[in-house]
Amino acid sequence: MIRLGGIKTALKAERCDIGRGGSMVMRPLVSFEYRAAQAKAGEILDKFFAGTEVLEPFGIPPYALAAVGDDDRSYQLTGLTQVLTAVFAAEMVVTAWSGIGDEHGNPLSLSRGALGMLFQDGEFLSRFEHHAYRLIFLEASEGE
Q1: How far apart, in whole angstroms, are the C-alpha atoms of residue 28 and residue 128?
Q2: What is the pLDDT of residue 92?
Q3: How far apart are the C-alpha atoms of 139 and 144, rounded to whole Å?
Q4: What are the pLDDT digits (tens) for 48-102?
Q5: Of 5, 88, 98, 117, which residue is the least packed, with the fewest Cβ within 10 Å?
Q6: Start-to-end C-alpha separation, the chain
Q7: Dist. CA 40–CA 15, nearest whole Å
Q8: What is the largest distance, in Å, between two alpha-carbon atoms of the chain?
Q9: 113: Cβ–Cβ under 8 A, 6 or more apart, which residues?
């Protein structure tokens, strides 16, 4: 039997530790928002493969994917997709952050480029995903 009900966890924003003194005020993502973030990441990758320079606004330096073997290219694309998806997801759910600065220690404003730079660090990406995707993981584990 399929049981339909409301989301069991409130969608209210809370401060979440992302490591090394940084934190984000955010709410969890719901599944349709996650799918939308994935679709937007796919659109950026399509433009990238068509030769358009689209990664700079995400704080991602130009990639030399042709310089690596097929296996490595696959890993790079998987990582790039994960970062782009997280950036689009964060734009939906993060309302503020603190403890995040540039190379000189000056506070950075919350922006697409800053999110992209932040999420290129695997620790920050992992902690963001843990907080942002928790409802999706809960839905999957409960079979809903």
Answers
A1: 10
A2: 98
A3: 5
A4: 888 888 999 999 887 655 566 667 777 888 889 999 999 999 999 999 999 999 9
A5: 5
A6: 11
A7: 26
A8: 57
A9: 57, 58, 59
Q: What is the 3-state secondary structure (H, E, C) of the chain?
A: CCCCCCCCCCCCCEEEEEECCEEEEECCCCHHHHHHHHHHHHHHHHHHHCCCCCCHHHCCCCCCHHHCCHHHHHHHHHHHHHHHHHHHHHHHHEEEEECCECCCCCECCCCHHHHHHHHCCHHHHHHHHHHHCHHHHHHHHHCC
CA-based nearest residue to 43, from 58, 29, 31, 28: 58
Distance of CA 25 to the CA centre of its chain: 14
Give the whole-angstrom CA distance, residue 16 versus residue 133.
13
**How far is residue 137's CA from residue 126's CA, in Å, rounded to a whole number?**
14
